[in-house]
Automatic annotation (TrEMBL):
Protein name per its UniProtKB record: Histidinol-phosphatase
GO biological process: inositol metabolic process; L-histidine biosynthetic process; signal transduction
Encoding gene, per UniProt annotation: hisN
Record-listed E.C. numbers: 3.1.3.15
One GO MF term attached to the UniProt entry: inositol monophosphate 1-phosphatase activity
EC class of the enzyme, as a word: hydrolase
PANTHER family found in the cross-reference section: INOSITOL MONOPHOSPHATASE (PTHR20854), INOSITOL-1-MONOPHOSPHATASE-RELATED (PTHR20854:SF4)
Length: 257
């Protein structure tokens, strides 16, 4: 099925009405995970609430999986996957590299998705017509770079500290093979693969709501997104996205060791 850009814009606008007034406002932060730091804010919860309401009104038979408010009707063929603020740590730090992620799966495959960054006024989305951008510089179709050689690639990861044990050693070796490595930016780095500014993103331990919305944006722009072992990315896990199939294969080989 096709999802209209008008519906994606409505979702982005509704979420922004909850997130932007709370951004850089020093609001309360709650830690969801004892012994660690997994922050959630009122903005996360309220943005997901309004997104779910829009989806339920437009597609009452569809299921929903959200980071903050759980799942409903996920036995449906059509399931929406929501991360109201991907990059909450960036959000509470005042950095505009977080985003609202909303994706649609049909029979488990990600077919449409959007990433909205309202502070910078950017919307990245994919539907049946392809992958698109709206924001500063004007609308355009998204296309990945044609990089095939690791030595010419720009690599992003949230932080190498997420790689544990031997996986960290493999990542460190991998990083030495690329031209440029940078850290952080969560979903924004994946969007930059689709936009042709970044070549590889490697992030371990992602949840479905961290990646589902981004899969069709990258794939329809010409890139590849899988787990480190080449499996489908829709269920999360250790995820690598790359600008070309050749670069993706090289990155997978390096990350597997």
């Amino acid at each position: 099925m096709d999802i209209s850009i008008d519906f994606m814009r409505r979702i982005a606008d509704a979420a922004a009405a909850e997130t932007l007034p709370r951004f850089r406002s020093q609001g309360a932060v709650v830690n969801k995970e004892a012994g660690s730091f997994d922050p959630v804010t009122e903005a996360d919860r309220e943005a997901e609430r309004v997104i779910r309401a829009l989806i339920s009104a437009e597609y009452p038979d569809h299921g929903i999986l959200g980071e903050e408010h759980g799942s409903e009707n996920t036995s449906s063929r059509h399931v929406w996957v929501i991360d109201p603020i991907d990059g909450t740590r960036a959000f509470i730090s005042g950095l505009p590299v977080w985003g609202t992620l909303v994706g649609l799966t049909v029979d488990g495959d990600a077919v449409a998705g959007m990433m909205s960054q309202p502070f910078t006024g950017e919307l990245f989305y994919a539907n049946a017509s392809g992958a698109h951008y709206e924001g500063p510089g004007g609308p355009r179709k998204l296309a990945t770079r044609k990089t095939t050689d690791l030595a010419e690639a720009t690599l992003f990861t949230t932080t190498p500290a997420l790689f544990k044990g031997e996986a960290r050693q493999r990542y460190d070796r991998f990083e030495t093979t690329v031209r440029l490595a940078r850290y952080g930016t969560d979903c924004y780095a994946f969007a930059m693969v689709a936009a042709g500014s970044v070549d590889i993103v490697a992030d371990p331990g992602l949840k479905p709501y961290d990646i589902v919305a981004l899969i069709p944006i990258i794939e329809k722009a010409g890139g590849v997104v899988t787990t480190f072992d080449g499996g489908p990315a829709e269920k999360g896990g250790d995820i690598v996205a790359a600008a070309t199939p050749e670069l993706h294969a090289a990155a997978m080989a390096a990350l597997r060791g």
